[in-house]
Structure formats: structure tokens, C-alpha cells
Design goal:
Elements (H helix, E strand, L loop, with lengths): L19 H6 L3 E2 L12 E2 L11 H13 L4 E6 L3 E7 L5 E6 L7 E2 L1 E3 L4 E6 L8 E6 L1
Antiparallel strand pairs: 1-2, 3-4, 4-8, 5-6, 5-9, 7-8
């Protein structure tokens, strides 16, 4: 059985701008669609996965909500694990975080589809770092 059947249903496994190397390193399938009126994802979960795994950022987001309640912005964890960021943007196509911890690069956030929050943990982000969310609609 072809676990990367391009004719099968595609459940998005990436984010806007992901490349083939990063997609496949996450254990997902990569198949570009250049004439793409249906908006099919290029990076998608393998067809033999009945329930795609919840991204680790979303699991962490749920744990943070249980411990601290609903929050937006950042929550410093510790010097080794850095800072956890969350923003509510249920209609965004993609959200990134950029700050003095990331240089000129923006770090993509993961959509936690169960509540419209985007989340990411950035180990290099420390107390006092300036940051901003970049949102694409």
C-alpha cells in the first residue's frame, strides 16, 4: 500500500512555506501541486494514519491552559525550554513569531484546530525579549 497516495485524502501536516526536507523530516508526505484550485496541501499526513497526531505545540498549549487558564502572548517556562507563545487567530492562514531571539527569521506557529489558537515553544526566547506576531489572512 502506498502510504503517500496523492489521490487519497490529504490532511495538512505542515504550514505555509514548509519545504520538502522539513515536511519529510516530520514523517509526512510531500507532493507539490502546481495547478491547485482546491488548495490541496503539499505536505500531508501519510494515508495509513487514521487519526493524525496532535502537534506537540498543541499538547503543550492544552497543558498550559489547564495550569494557567486561557492566556495570550507568552509564558516563560525556564532557561532551558525557553518561552511558550500563543495567539488566538482562528481565521488566519498562517501565524509566525519574530523577535530578537530569532534574528531576521520568523518562526512558524502551529494551528491548534480545536480552539483557533496558534502556538509554539521557542527555546531561545528568554525573559525580556521583544517579539511580535506576524499574521497572514
Amino acid at each position: 500500500q502506498n502510504v503517500c497516495d496523492v489521490g487519497g485524502e490529504r490532511t495538512d501536516c505542515g504550514y505555509t512555506g514548509i519545504d520538502a526536507e522539513e515536511c519529510e523530516s516530520q514523517g509526512c508526505c510531500w507532493y507539490p501541486v502546481y495547478d491547485n484550485p482546491d488548495g490541496l496541501p503539499w505536505c500531508f499526513f501519510k494515508n495509513d494514519v487514521s487519526t493524525p497526531p496532535t502537534p506537540s505545540q498543541c499538547v503543550q498549549h492544552e497543558l498550559m491552559k489547564e495550569k494557567y487558564g486561557h492566556y495570550l502572548g507568552n509564558l516563560f517556562i525556564n532557561e532551558e525550554l525557553g518561552t511558550f507563545f500563543a495567539v488566538w487567530a482562528p481565521h488566519a492562514d498562517q501565524v509566525w513569531i519574530q523577535g530578537n531571539f530569532s534574528g531576521i527569521n520568523a518562526t512558524p506557529m502551529t494551528l491548534c484546530s480545536f480552539d483557533g489558537y496558534w502556538a509554539v515553544q521557542v527555546p531561545s526566547a528568554q525573559v525580556g525579549d521583544e517579539y511580535s506576531f506576524l499574521v497572514s489572512f
